[in-house]
């Protein structure tokens, strides 16, 4: 069985076009050749095509092909940075509730920008207590630190209910600042709220050693390996995973896809097989693989006993 800790609904209802363009422009700029304006426009259309799955139908098919049992759909609150989304946050949550009610393959994490003040806290509380959201997703590139005290009320709720917090770490769309997406930004919150499990999105990517160091010394920090699809073709992925395992992090690594961001890389099955290859090549053990693919997230999300004993 496989659990995906990191995915999103693929639709411009949830991702601002400007955000998406910032990301696709980075990809275009880092191509080894210069592209013409018309090629650039064609690429934009191709990128836009990734956002064609507002009902998660394609995602469900790819999950089935890949053997992924459940995926966590993460809400990102872009509404403070991109004002046209400001009033949509409650509706965005409700759309996720509807999807979860129709398809038991999905669970969701609420997403609220802490600068929404009391209204934001109330929305988060309703999301987890009434609507069944299983955690909190934070997006620090929107302009706040995950250790900012304005998030303390959210973490208190997470602490009392045994809910995890998934924090984006590392670079993102060039449209947003990266200042608060360093691994160390999670440390103060994780230190002050030891009962809350913090999942570092993308395991630090380019700063994977710093992320691993924090996970090694903080028992409530986990690493989500979505985003390493890009490292696969360069041969870095196996080395990074070996590094993490060598630091004793077998029980802290979580499989993730970050659907739909890496759809160009290939289908979900390709990514699942790439992770399974680590075991086939003896870079990780069978138990490591089972921990990464299922056991660790299952423990965080579905093990009541673990929450009570902490
Ligand atoms: Zn993501």
UniProtKB/TrEMBL annotation:
Keywords: Lyase. InterPro entries: ACMSD, Amidohydro-rel, Metal_Hydrolase. CDD domains: metallo-dependent_hydrolases (cd01292). The keyword Mitochondrion does not apply. PANTHER family: 2-AMINO-3-CARBOXYLMUCONATE-6-SEMIALDEHYDE DECARBOXYLASE. Pfam families: Amidohydro_2 (PF04909). It comes from the Bacteria. SUPFAM superfamilies: Metallo-dependent hydrolases. Gene3D superfamilies: Metal-dependent hydrolases. This is Amidohydrolase family protein. Residues 102-276 form the Amidohydrolase-related domain.
């Amino acid at each position: 069985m496989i659990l995906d800790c990191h995915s999103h609904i693929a639709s411009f209802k949830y991702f601002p076009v400007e955000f998406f363009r910032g990301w696709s422009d980075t990809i275009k700029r880092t191509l080894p050749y210069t592209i013409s304006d018309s090629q650039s426009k064609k690429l934009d259309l191709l990128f836009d095509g990734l956002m064609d799955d507002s009902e998660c139908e394609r995602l469900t098919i790819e999950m089935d092909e890949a053997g992924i049992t459940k995926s966590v759909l993460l809400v990102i609150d872009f509404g403070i940075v991109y004002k046209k989304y400001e009033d949509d946050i409650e509706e965005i949550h409700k759309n996720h509730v509807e999807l979860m009610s129709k398809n038991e393959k999905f669970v969701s994490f609420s997403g609220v920008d802490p600068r929404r003040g009391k209204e934001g806290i109330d929305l988060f509380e309703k999301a987890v207590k009434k609507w069944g959201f299983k955690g909190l997703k934070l997006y620090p590139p929107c302009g706040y630190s995950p250790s900012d005290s304005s998030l303390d009320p959210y973490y208190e709720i997470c602490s009392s209910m045994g809910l995890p917090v998934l924090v984006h770490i590392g670079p993102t769309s060039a449209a947003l600042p990266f200042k608060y997406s360093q691994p160390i930004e999670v440390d103060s919150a994780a230190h002050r709220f030891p009962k809350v499990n913090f999942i570092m999105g993308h395991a630090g990517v380019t700063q994977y050693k710093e992320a691993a160091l924090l996970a090694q010394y903080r028992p409530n920090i986990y690493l989500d390996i979505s985003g390493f699809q890009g490292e696969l073709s360069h041969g870095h992925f196996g080395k990074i995973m070996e590094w993490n395992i060598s630091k004793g992090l077998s029980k802290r690594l979580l499989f993730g896809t970050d659907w739909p961001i890496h759809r160009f890389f290939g289908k979900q099955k390709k990514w699942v097989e790439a992770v399974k290859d680590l075991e086939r090549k003896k870079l990780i053990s069978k138990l490591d693989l089972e921990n990464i693919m299922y056991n660790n997230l299952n423990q965080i999300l579905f093990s009541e006993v673990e929450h009570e004993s902490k």
